[in-house]
Amino acid sequence: MDSRSQAPYKSSSFSPATTRDDSGGKTREVDRNFSLGALRDKDAQHGGSREQSIKEENEQEGDGDHGARVGGEDPGLVGGGCGEPDLASLSVEVDAFLAGQDEDAAPVSITETTLERFASAVELLVARYEGVEDRWASEAGSEPTALLAAITRIAALASALGKTPEGGGKHAAAVNRVTAVLHRAITFVEEEFLAQLEDPRVPRAGPGGEQQGGAHEPDRCALAPPSNAGAGIESAPPYPPETVERLRAMADAMVAAGYVTECSQMFLVARRNAFDAALQGLGYEKSNIDDVVKMTWEALEAVIVTWTKAFRHAINVGLSTEHDLCTRVFAGRHAGVGRGIFADLSRCVMLHMLSFTEAVAMTKRAAEKLFKVLDMYEAVRDASPVIEAFLSADEPAAEHSHSGLAELKSEIAAVRSRLGESAAAIFRELESSIRADAGKQPVPGGAVHPLTRYVMNYLKYACEYNSTLEQVFREHHDGGGGGDDGGNPFAAQLMEVMELLHGNLEAKSRLYKDPSLSNIFLMNNGRYMLQKIRGSAETNAMLGEAWARKQSTNLRQYHKNYQRDAWSRVLGLLRDDGVLTVKGHVQKPVLKERFKQFNAAMDEIHRTQGAWVVSDEQLQSELRVSIAAVVVPAYRSFLGRFAQHFSAGRQTEKYVKLSAEDVETIIDELFDGNATSMTRRKT
């Protein structure tokens, strides 16, 4: 049975206290200090303590006979004198009355005097605790204080009186007295409960307002230090064990007294503030959607980094800490209360953090946002099993806990889906940007195109998220293959991007008027692509060796095409094709023309191809070596056969301008981006 239904008359710092009017069942406001209002005025006038005032009141009440004294003795006084009411003996009578309320027990009545005396005894105990500096010094081990035991007993008494003739009018004044004392006691416990929750490490100010035990620390008790943020790192408990025991004892008393709502609300608010403080310690500040949408990407990127760190801390450290605390403070028969508080706390904190992802999703999509969106996706994805574990740990009967955590689990799944859809769409934007890049200006010197550099570096970083992107495209594939046949949908998407890039580069190569330069351009870009893929284990694994072999084959073909287009004419000039020698005689005019044409061709090649760019040193060396291996021996042989036909001196200098070593030097100066003519070089 809900403990609240057993305490019909209650108040707290969260709601006005009420009690029943003696005359007709209507409710009226009750001052928390109802039974001591006049005495406090008396204290102010005479400077006496509240404890002494209560003693005086008890002595005065002892003079008035309520029909309870027999033979001049009061059962509520020690030895029948006029001292303090004996709480222990009165508690025995109250317990006997409460035991008599069981269905199987014989009913036991209780006198109005006993009710009055017991209420005064409890009130005196409350006053004593209010007047001491260290209110927990008398606590022994993990046992609750005498005050909490007395509060639990008077709460049970107030509940029981509401169901008996004694409470229905027979002892109405005494019942009101019991209820008022209960209200005052619970108010004291509430204040102590909140003080322990908010700052358990520093003693609060004493009754006179002076600070006890040193200055307050500015920070409230929060979660783990920011340096502990991350999966698998345990947080230090937010409270020392003795404080947890105090909180548990006070929570037991409040819940037993029917103040479960007030107790839960105080605990929830205090821990929510602590949770927020921990997130702020990580640099996370709450942002509304409008602020996020208006941010520049550079600013938003930094916020996403902080959010991801804070979210992982909250999931992996914060929630476990709070779950453990709720389990310890609300243990045993009140475990359901703790589960409900934890569910509310988890839902409130996490739903607010998840709302940030919606704001990010509303910003304009851009390729550079992919990786931060994937970071958020992974954090949210990894939160699902944590919430599932909390759900599984709760008993099936904990409906409130299940509904709160189930709502959070559902929202996490929805956010994950939205982030995954956004990531897939952003990646596909890369394909659109490749298709749209149809620039009409060729890159000078046939160098690596900026599009190639951008795409390949983008894919390198994307492949570092290969398992996540595989998951994303499996969940959000567009029917483009790889999603339904058991293959890797991200690998299929990656291959499509590579094919698009290859096609785009083929089209851009046709912008060059010189076919040789077109092949240099394709070689440069193809080599860059291959190196980027082989330089990244993740990318290489995604595309596979078959793609690398195909790319290498393409590069060899570009190389052959270049040599054919750029050097076939030069090599043709060095052949004896039946024109140079006729019937064993060298045709000197033809020979002169051949040398002139060769010299002009080499000058043109040196001037033009010297300005071409091959930034990869290995490819540059491969090209020079392969050219020299064909051209230099052919020229050396040509010189050996025909240079002798020129007379020494001016004629030789006029036609034989290059030695074999000069040709080799010219070849070694190609592809370095320097446009220098052979003539200027020699002067």
SSE diagram, text form:
Elements: E1 18-20, E2 27-29, H1 37-46, H2 50-63, H3 87-99, H4 112-130, H5 146-161, H6 172-198, H7 241-256, H8 260-281, H9 289-294, H10 297-329, H11 335-362, H12 370-393, H13 399-436, H14 450-463, H15 466-475, H16 489-509, H17 515-534, H18 537-573, E3 581-582, E4 585-586, H19 588-609, H20 617-642, H21 650-655, H22 660-668, H23 678-682
Antiparallel strand pairs: 1-2, 3-4
What this model shows, in words?
- It is a single chain.
- With 683 residues, the protein is an all-alpha fold.
- The protein folds into four domains: 3-198, no CATH class; 226-417, Monooxygenase, CATH 1.20.1280.170; 437-564, no CATH class; 577-682, Up-down Bundle (Monooxygenase), CATH 1.20.1280.170.
- 64% of the residues lie in helices and 1% in strands.
- It has 23 helices and four strands.
- It has a two-stranded antiparallel ribbon.
- β3 (581-582) and β4 (585-586) form a beta hairpin.
- The chain is rod-shaped and about 150 Å long.
- Mean pLDDT is 79; it is low at 1-51, 57-82 and 202-233.
- Residues 73-83 have a biased composition (Gly residues).
- Residues 1-84, 199-238 are annotated as: Disordered.
- One of its GO terms (molecular function) is phosphatidylinositol-4,5-bisphosphate binding.
- It comes from Zea mays.
- Residues 1-18 have a biased composition (Polar residues).
